[in-house]
Amino acid sequence: MSKLTHLDEHGHAKMVDVGHKPETERVAIARGEVHMKKETLDLIRSHQIKKGDVLTVAQIAGISASKRTSDLIPLCHPLPISKIDVDFELVDEPPSIIITSTVKVTGKTGVEMEALTAVSVAALTIYDMAKSAEKTMKIQNIRLIEKHGGQSGDVVNE
After folding, report:
1. Verdict on whether the full-model pTM lies above 0.85
2. Which terminus of the chain has fewer Cβ atoms in its 10 Å neighbourhood, N or C?
3. Which DSSP symbol is given to 62?
4. Whole-angstrom Cα distance, residue 4 to residue 1?
5. Domain contains 116
6. What is the CATH number of the domain that holds 34?
7. Among 71, 87, 128, 154, which one carries the catalytic annotation?
């Protein structure tokens, strides 16, 4: 079994030292889904949700959250992110919104957590914005789709 990297010799949590690692371009893509009733999707599509433009607010929330990942996830390194995209696909069957985030950095550690955080917070924002229309929406399948760069190389998960 390999040594646990986030524990010191006394078993206490520590942030991994990445100072020795080279800076490389790293990209991560994450995806998630918010499932809902057709009527709710129609309200979102036609900009008739009482709180406002659901997808614009969710996009901004996802971007903002990605930039704050190190404040939210213990032991994550703060990163100088160079690009964050949060995109939505409205799907009629089953009625849902597919959220995809792409995060890019030139740095010493990857941006998987930043991409996953963007999707998670965008999904939560969609729920919050549309909960007056439906409280039974389901946030599902948040996952890393792919990552590129770094010591572990490329990973494609879909």
Report:
1. yes
2. N
3. H
4. 9
5. yes
6. 3.30.70.640
7. 128
Domain membership of residue 56 (yes or no) is: yes
Length of the chain: 158
- Does the active-site annotation cover 87? no
In a domain, 44, yes or no: yes
Peptide bond into 94 cis (omega under 30): yes
96 lies in a domain? yes
Question: Cα 42 from chain centroid?
Answer: 24
Per residue in 61-97, pLDDT tens?
Answer: 999 999 999 999 988 889 999 999 999 999 999 999 9
Structural domain of 75: 24-156
Q: What number is the average pLDDT over the span 39-51? A: 97
Q: How far apart are CA 109 and CA 96, in angstroms?
A: 33
Non-local (6+) Cβ contacts of 102 within 8 A are 27, 28, 29, 83, 84, 85, 87, 115
Tell whether the model's pLDDT for residue 57 goes beyond 90: yes
Alpha helices for 20-53 (secondary structure H): 38-45
DSSP letter assigned to residue 71: H
Number of separate domains in the chain? 1
